UniProtKB/TrEMBL annotation:
NCBIfam families: queuosine_QueD (TIGR03367). This is 6-carboxy-5,6,7,8-tetrahydropterin synthase. Binds 1 zinc ion per subunit. The gene is queD. It catalyses: 7,8-dihydroneopterin 3'-triphosphate + H2O = 6-carboxy-5,6,7,8-tetrahydropterin + triphosphate + acetaldehyde + 2 H(+). Gene3D superfamilies: 6-pyruvoyl tetrahydropterin synthase/QueD. Keywords: Lyase, Metal-binding, Queuosine biosynthesis, Zinc. GO terms for molecular function: 6-carboxytetrahydropterin synthase activity; metal ion binding. The active site is at C23, H67, E111. The keyword Zinc applies. GO terms for biological process: tRNA queuosine(34) biosynthetic process. Coiled coil: none annotated. Its cofactor is Zn(2+). PANTHER family: 6-CARBOXY-5,6,7,8-TETRAHYDROPTERIN SYNTHASE, PYRUVOYL TETRAHYDROBIOPTERIN SYNTHASE.
Length: 121
């Protein structure tokens, strides 16, 4: 079994509806995102997937967040843009975009150096 690990980041603003405290106010984070991909097989080049292709697929998902106010996104009208929900959204969108035979193992998103959330199925 092989695992690929790809890190990226984005900057965005949000506020947490219903939160009793400062996080209900508009504020921002420099989120870091780590995606782990898993595959049993390699292609004829010896790759699970070209890192360049993986970065493109991941970027297609995360660029929607970059320099935005996350609460304005349709997705985050129904649920709060917490780190947990951001990880799940990235996981599911990436799973839909991934070529067959490559599984998105988990997505971890950090809103600071010390706090992050992982989603996997
Ligand atoms: N489980 C979660 N808890 C919290 C989330 C979250 O997404 N998942 N988000 C927040 C807020 O985004 C808030 O911005 C973070 O609050 P806090 O940890 O207090 O942020 P600080 O960087 O100021 O933390 P310090 O350690 O005090 O510097 C809240 N909780
Ligand atoms: Zn926050």
């Amino acid at each position: 079994m092989f695992e690929l690990i790809i890190d990226t980041d984005f900057a965005a603003a949000h506020n947490l509806r219903g939160y009793k405290g400062q996080c209900e106010n508009l504020h921002g984070h420099n989120w870091k995102v780590q995606v782990v991909l898993k595959s049993e097989k390699l292609d004829n080049l010896g790759m699970v997937i070209d890192f360049r292709e993986a970065k493109k697929l991941i970027g297609d998902v995360t660029k929607k967040f970059d320099h935005t106010y996350l609460n304005d996104m349709e997705h985050f009208k129904a649920e709060n843009p917490t780190t947990e929900n951001i990880s799940r959204m990235i996981y599911r969108e990436l799973t839909s975009a991934m070529p067959s035979g490559i599984k998105v193992e988990k997505v971890t998103t950090w809103e600071s150096d010390r706090c992050g959330a992982t989603y996997f199925e």
